Amino acid sequence: MADKRREPRDKDPRAGGAEAVPIGPAQMVKPLAAALAGADPDAARAAVRALRRLASAAGRPGADDDRAAVVWALTPYLAKDKPRELRREVLWLLADLAGGETVGAVAALLGEPELREDARMALERIPGEESLAALRAAFAGAPEDFKPNVAHSLRRRGVAVEGYPSARLVPVKGTSVGA
Q1: Rounded Cα–Cα distance for residues 6 and 8 (Å)
Q2: What pLDDT, in 10s, does the model give residues 52-76?
Q3: Rounded CA gap, 9 and 54, in Å?
Q4: Distance CA 142, CA 137 (A)
Q5: Rounded to an integer, what distance in angstroms lies between the CA atom of residue 139 and that of residue 146?
Q6: With contact defined as beta carbons under 8 Å apart, do 54 and 36 qualify?
């Protein structure tokens, strides 16, 4: 006759009355963001890969609840007290996932020289009228050295911009070639 004894309670994962709590994509953002911002470069690279996979899964067709939860979980990592590398990665993740709900937080980064290009590109990719309005406002208040870049984003969104040629038409070094 086979021994039908149960395993000791300390080996039973259900011991102690603890119940398993499902972990969704939004709950994974915090530990991955902490790893990305940490001192270990290998852990940071792994965290970036994991965050990108998480965002890709949350952005799949039919996963609107996951997408909204991940966007909500990522947005606080745009705050000024977070490391620049983390903020930059979050901008690019939100560019693929977000809608109008994050435009204000992204547009606020247009005033930071280290992140303004990433914020501009995120706004260019975020669909909707809110992001287009933010780009228009950014163009109106942008410093002269940044206006051609914002003009490019506006053109990509279908807005005609006069007075600022495309960056591809502006020579990067002096030339003696005439028209």
Answers
A1: 6
A2: 999 999 999 998 899 999 999 999 9
A3: 35
A4: 8
A5: 8
A6: no
3-state secondary structure of 3: coil
- Residue given tokens 């990719």 in the structure block: 125
pTM of the predicted protein model: 0.78
Q: List pLDDT tens digits, range 164-178.
A: 776 666 566 777 776
Residue pLDDT, tens place only, 68-102:
999 999 999 999 999 999 999 999 999 999 989 99
118, 120, 146 from 114: Cα distances, Å: 9, 12, 12
Tokens standing for residue 100:
């109008």
Backbone angles phi, psi at 120, to 5 degrees: -60, -45
The single-letter DSSP state of residue 159 is: -
Within 13 A of 113's CA, how many CA atoms are on the CB side? 2
Return the closest-CA partner of residue 114 out of 131, 91, 138: 91
d(CA 108, CA 27): 25
Q: Which residue has the tokens 């690279």?
A: 45
CA distances from 134 to 2, 34, 90 (A): 72, 30, 18
Structure tokens at 93: 């993740």
